[in-house]
Amino acid sequence: MASSPCSSSNSGGSNFDCGLEIKTRSVEQTLIPLVSQITTLINHKDKLKKTEKTLRAIQKVGQAVSVAVGRFVAVGEAIALENEELKEEMGHACFEARRAGMAIAQLTDVCGAEQSESDGRGTVFSDRTGMVKAARMLLSSVTKVLVLADRIVIKQIISSRNKVLVTLEQLEQVSTFQEFVQIFSQFGNEMVEFAHLTGDRQNDLKDENKKARMAAARAVLEKCTMMLLTASKTCLRHPDCESARINKDAVFQRMRLALDQVIEIVTDARTSGEAKTLPISIYAGIKDFKGKVEGLRDSLYCVPCEAVAAQLEALVEQTEDFTDSAYTSHEQREGILQLCHMTRQETQQLLSTWSEAQSLKAKEVTEEVELAILKTCQSVSELRREVSHKAATQASELLKLHSDHLVLQALKAAGSEGNLEAVAEYGRTLTEQREQLVETCRLLCHISGTEPLEITCIHAEETFHVIGPQIISAAQTLALHPNSKIAKENLDVFCEAWESQLCDMAVLLKEINDVFEGRRGRLSLPSPKHSTNLKTVKAAKLDAEEQTTIAKLGLELRLLTSDVDSELERWEEQDHDVARQCQSMSSVAYSMYLFTRGEGLLKTTLDLFHQAEVCQLCKSQRSSQGSPQHWRERQLGTPVKEDALNGKGSNGFGVKSLEQHMANMTFLETK
């Protein structure tokens, strides 16, 4: 992790350590300009020629710092007035910042430097210690103000969560459709607010592990919001149905756990016991083992032999997750066991030559030890490759096997026919699939290569583990009430969540492979999706010539789009049909180009085909109805903000779907 801007040193060795941990990018970015200006003042040459230009520059920087601090402190003091619990701490930090800013202004008032020094007043030239002290005080106090202000954001998130929890309790107790609609409308608004607050916080976090955990929790809330709606409606329509009640209770429980997890992340605390640590993966174990072995080159006496041997045995024990799996073939199991045996042999040889070198009082690594180190590292690397290949192959085959969703379709059909026996049979099949997927996620966690990806694997494992039984209970409810539209809708929502998680797992597998092969792509964070029931599309591989052609076309499209927009700004009649059509078609063309690169608003081939159809309707109606913005607005049911069009992710939890279901909800559903 990059060092905080609050911890920087000058050429003289001074260290401006504010003593506060900066956890968000916004605080860090706010401090960077201040650190830069202060560093400029501190790091001047001791024998700098005091020309008029130099003196004016130093004074200008000092004044800029002082003015900026003054404005900054005014904001901090305003925050203190509005938040009584921070008043004392914030007031002290603001006082220290203002005092440091004034000190810097005085020390940089050097236009009459010689006169000032003769009068006994120190300047940046004569009182370097005073300057360093003022700079340290300023950075510390300003950072304290920013960190205190960040508590307000945390407070807002906690307050929003608390409102959601209260409304959640009310939703759980409702007994009529009318009461449910009223409370759910309030719940939807509160969830939208919570989504935006937590989304902003997720993007602002510096710690990638926390960011991954936040993304996982928000993904749960996104899916569970729709599940809660349909599960609650089903329970209200069929109040005596036990499977409907079980289905609903599981959703409420999962939402509460996700809400608690968000608060644990933003407050650095756990509401239930000690901090949860990630299980040690094979990837991490091998990396640590190789580090210890290769560390012998630096010192033959730094690590005891017993420690290396014990670590290897722990590593071999972890491979049992692969060798004991019912889904591991005999050939794969034998291959892993053979590599474990080989690694043991090489390690024993290393320990033997190592002990011999120690007994001979060798001052540096002998050729025998060096060779043993290389062989040990090679064998453990081959073990890593073997288990990685096993996990990736199993995941790929499993995703391909379940891509048609036949079991889900069979469950829907059996439920609609009221066939409880068939539901039970297909439920057992789905349970077997769930066990396979859960185990595969566990194996992927072993080889993921980074902690954020491990967190995403754990999230996928938990999601399959929970949603499987929920699909079965929803199918049982439909089988008991085969003519219930609400029960059918409820089963559809849970099946879509299962399909969506399979799509997320495919993306996760690709990124794990990228890490293994040294291609670090973007981090796989679970994110809200509006088309959760769409299958993933395999990306086509292009040769160098095709890539160059597409790149050139993309550049031309981008330039043409820019030219069209610039030209239209000169038109007096902005609503002219021709103007709107030109602007729309240029935007559509560029959106389609972005699709070929896996970017932009069009995410699937279905989106692309729909956009092409809308584009053809541009031509027929000569209007802007087919513009990417209007198309996306129609898809989402809400206007698209500029940030979304610029590629910034939405923080919502699928608000469009909520609004649609709210609109379709009626009290006349008695059939």
Automatic annotation (TrEMBL):
Ranges annotated as spanning the membrane: none
Record-linked InterPro entries: Alpha-catenin/vinculin-like_sf, Alpha_catenin, CTNNAL1, Vinculin/catenin
GO MF term set: actin filament binding; cadherin binding
Gene Ontology biological-process entries: cell adhesion; Rho protein signal transduction
Recorded GO CC terms: cytoplasm
Basic and acidic residues bias (residue ranges): 630-645
Superkingdom assignment: Eukaryota
Region: Disordered, residue numbers: 623-655
Keywords recorded for this protein, A-Z: Cytoplasm
Pfam families (alphabetical): Vinculin
SUPFAM superfamilies: alpha-catenin/vinculin-like (SSF47220)
Subcellular location per the Swiss-Prot or TrEMBL entry: Cytoplasm
Family to which the UniProt record says this protein belongs: Belongs to the vinculin/alpha-catenin family.
Protein name: Alpha-catulin
Upper lineage: Eukaryota, Metazoa, Chordata, Craniata, Vertebrata
